[in-house]
Amino acid sequence: MNRIFSLLTFISIITISNAQNLSSSPYSGFGLGEPQFDQNIVLSSMAGISSTYISEIGNEVNFSNPAANQNLNFTTFNVGFNNTFSSLKANNLSEKNSVSYISDISLGFALSEKFKFGLGFQPFSTVGYDVSRIDSLKQADDKYILNSNNFKGEGGLNSLHSFVSYTLKPNLSVGLRVNYIFGNVSKDHEINNFEYNYITNNYEKKDLVTGYETDVNIATYNFTTGITYKMKVKENHNLTLGGTFGFGFDANSDFNYLKSTYYYNSFGTKSNVDTLSFGTNKGKLSLPKNFSLGVAYGKTLKWNAAFDFKWTEGVDYTFPNEKGIFQNNYKVAVGGWIIPNINSYKSYFDKIIYRGGFYYQSGALEVNSKDISQIGLTLGIGLPIAKRGQAPSYINLGVEFGRQGTKSDNLIQEDFMKFKIGINLNDIWFRKRKFN
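Now predict its structure.
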């Protein structure tokens, strides 16, 4: 019954999370939005050092590197939640936002001693922004023509994914991850003209609002391979090497577009709508190739420190009325974990997993000749909740402090803080119990 309940919970959470509003960042307005994949709580609490992360306790799934699951001994169910607070600053203006959402769900288990398998669901990219820009053109001594451009967007892509890993030798494993990526992105651009008399301080609408609406549906696949090699350096000390390669993909998509003019009535809804053009176009959006390399060193069940490097290929993207380039970019991260004494009988705090890390990501976006880079500091803990003698389960807590963008050159600086909480429940499936 518990196994059936876990599977039903897994499916129902996927259904609920498919309708979440996940972003409030203005930088999510480019292309298919801000990347969100590979952000489970355990890995993100260590700045995302995923290429070499192999759970020594054997109860955590690593989807980022599908090969890094050779220690998966228990059937493990994970669910995580993310609450992001952001502060946007541009010139002398500022705004605060917050969003909450389910960040990841996964189920993993050992099919045999050498074969491991996992199934998961996670946001792949997010779109959520509402930005206005006002341009003025002086017409006479006492009047200005104001041109208001309003940009809004919502939606994003989701990933339903699975992995299989195989242990070739005790210290060498390979793996494959398959992602089914699907979702919808909607973008609106409104142009509104006003005449402003700065002597009488009055605004007067001069024209109808002109609106450009774009809606795109996407469904495609992506594949990632991985490898890990772990060798013993000295007693209880190990060196781990790991890497991944993502193949990228061209996603066939249908672009629905609508151009119309209208007024907004006193209730804030559109009226007198006049459709100028509409239709559907076929198009392609590219998912970029990427690779990662990592190295880690640590003492078994005591501590581990790692370095990760990830490179992502730049790709072109085209929406109706929008065309741009994501440039080649990279991410470097250092992070790790420590357990004071996992077998402690005296102190609960000695059995807690303490995590931390730091990362820098170069800008995939270039706006006004500025790279929109990102920097962040992460912290986290894993609180054991299983009774002695049972499979180890944890409540995972994490926090991330970061910044992207800049206030110079009429851009937006975004400072954010993410609070993360998740639960890791474990049991033994597919193996006969010797004792009840």
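Confidence is low (pLDDT under 50) at residues 1-19.
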